[in-house]
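ok trying again, last paste got cut off:
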Amino acid sequence: MSRAGNGRRVCALGVAGVLAGTVLVGCGDDDSGDGAQGTSAKSGAGAREEGTQAVRSAYDRTAEEDTAKVKLRVRTSAQGASQTADGQGAVDLDDGDSVMTLTVQGQQIEQRVVDQVLYQKLPKGQAPGGKPWIRIDLGKVAAQQGAGDGSMSDPARSAAYAKAITDKDVTEKGEATVNGVRTTHYRVSVDVADLPNGDTLRKQVGPTLPMDVWLDDEGRMRRQQIDMTVEAPKGTQRSSSGASSAPGKVTVRTVMDFTDFGTEVEADEPPAGQVTDMTGKALEQGKRRS
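nice, full thing came through this time. structure:
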């Protein structure tokens, strides 16, 4: 496969990780707001306590809507090069199933997540095995990463993150309009040690997990922003001259918007004969990162 093709696949799988692994569990820090227009923030202990409760409740209040349309942009950067993937589709906020069309470097990828299994239909000629679809068991990948209890891979169990949030972690940044809806912007920084599998997560994301969320008047999440930095797989970094280089970092910045709560979501598995299982390859890459 060409270098560009490999890049498209990496970027697309990053999008899958956002939807299947971190819906309602985000981390981010971007003052630009990506189209949100805001006003000044409140201050004081009372406002901080109110904000903490709002953020804690947002996970349940959003999931109670069952489904939503999702629009996102993911920017992946490493060693001075970057790629952007745009996607739109729908997600089941309870079990994490989703359907989405991704656009990466001008090419479209059809994506489905069904029962924590990722399916992607890559552009013609790019899928291995001569079949149009690839398959990755995200549950097995999460277990390898130390998230076997489901708290990282199952949005329905994201309450574990909310419980770790205290008043010192939440700052109200002000009001903002997101997709025509009035929201309140909160910035949250959670001590990773207080989360399930905290030791493993600390190695992956550092000592704190920063989150930016925009909540509507009903306390539902309307925008979630994610900005993660991870070590690139060992032995895969190359300089512009093609020579091997020291391990580097890969940053993935995501902005994910939720609209049209209650929309229909139909996520079905592709026919088995059209699918190549890539779970083993994904697990091998995971070992190289450890």
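cool. The chain has a mean pLDDT of 73. Helices lie at 3-21, 45-63, 138-144, 159-163, 198-205, 279-289.
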